[in-house]
Every structure is written in structure tokens, then in C-alpha cells.
Amino acid sequence: MGEKLLLFGPPGVGKGTQAVRLSAALRVPHISTGDILRASLQSHTPLGNLVRSYVENGKLVPDETIVDVVRERLAERDAREGFVLDGFPRTVSQAAALADILRGTALQSDVRAGAIVDSVVVLDAPTEDLVLRLSGRRICESCQTSYHVTGRPPKRAGTCDRCGGTLIQRTDDAEETVRFRQQDYLQKTQPVIDYFLQNGWPVRVVDAIGDIDQIFGRVYAAIFWR
């Protein structure tokens, strides 16, 4: 039987990287809300057409539609025995809806035991570390090679080693934007974590400072040493 995992973490913490590694190690699908919304946009199902109508009109996809997209994805054969769910839920109402979805797909023995997920993994890192990590990123505007002002600096400041192009900072990596995204995550996600704790879901907080292998080892240990 595979593991059913929820993965949380602020922007820049390496959540996507760890989700992919977990998916491969556990042989369960990595389910990202961004990916499944993009897949819905490309489909011609009634639900996909509904998602497309919101996006094409410049509107946010509402909670109830996102919940339906997640429900549809979790019902697919490859997710029945396990998954790594990344980027959902983002609100308490979405968390309650996810609980209903999982109760509907779980074995009755699991529901009685309260085991509708195996772990809620929260990758944790100090905000200032993440701000430095994200705001220090630079990218070549010509060949798109990435650098970091301290972690992976170019040989010549502001110039790409590969093609000699100019290095720029993406708008999303500007310090003001990074700080806003960090605060937005904390404000919106903490109530979701509180919901899980209050309802007895197995929340595991993992230190996400260090190299990728170290962090993966901590995540893996948190999942299985319970």
C-alpha cells in the first residue's frame, strides 16, 4: 500500500524538488494543483471547459472548482493507493473538502482509524533565509542560465559565463515581492495547519535548511519513523 502524503512549504523552500523525489522513491504520483489545472485547461471535459472559462476571462478559479479538479485527479487509478499532494489545500474550506474527498475514497477500516492520510509534511525554514535565497537569484536574459549572487555567482558580476549575456533579476525575485509571498503563505497556510492539528491529522514539521539530500533524509525519516 502506498503512502498518502500532503506536502507544504513556503516559496523557495524546495517543496517541488522534494515532492518529485518522494514521488519517485515511493512510486506514487506527484499531484500538483498547478499541473492538474494546466491539464484541465488542455482537456475538453466539462470540468476542463469550466476551468478554461475562468482563465480566459481573467478570473480566479474558485475554490469549489479547484476542489472538483482535485477530486477528479485523486479518483484516477494511479492515485488510489498513494500520492504526494503538493499545493493543496490552501484554505481551511479546501482542507475540509479534501477530508470529505479522502473519506470517500478510503477503505472503511482506514476511516475508522482516522488514517485518511499518512503524513502532512511541512517543510520549515526561516523567512530571512528564504528571502536571501530567492532575491539572490539571477538569470541570463539570453540563454536563461541561472545563477545566485552568493550560492552560484558568475565569474564576472552581471555577465553570463555561458554566453556573455546580461544577468537580470526576475520580477518575482525582487525582495519586496519575495517578502510579500512569504507573508501571504504564512497568513493563508497556518490556519490550514491548525485545522489538521485540531482534527488529529499527522503533521510532521521538517527542517528544510541544508542540501537536498539531507532534507530528503529528514523528510523520509519523518514519514516512516512514526
Report the portion of residues in β strands.
Answer: 5-15%
Helix coverage percent? 40-55%
Radius of gyration: 19 Å
Strand sequence of the main sheet, in spatial order? Answer: 2-3-1-4-8
Helix/strand/pairing category: alpha/beta
* Count of spatially separate domains: 1
Under CATH, the topology can be stated as Rossmann fold
Description:
This protein is of the alpha/beta class. It has a single domain (4-126, 185-224), classed as Rossmann fold. It has helices at residues 15-26, 33-42, 46-56, 63-74, 92-105, 108-113, 127-135, 175-198, 212-224, and strands at residues 4-8, 30-32, 83-86, 119-124, 137-140, 146-148, 167-168, 203-207. Strand 5 and strand 6 form a beta hairpin. 26% of the residues are buried.
Layout: helices, strands, pairs:
Elements: E1 4-8, H1 15-26, E2 30-32, H2 33-42, H3 46-56, H4 63-74, E3 83-86, H5 92-105, H6 108-113, E4 119-124, H7 127-135, E5 137-140, E6 146-148, E7 167-168, H8 175-198, E8 203-207, H9 212-224
Parallel strand pairs: 1-3, 1-4, 2-3, 4-8
Antiparallel strand pairs: 5-6, 5-7
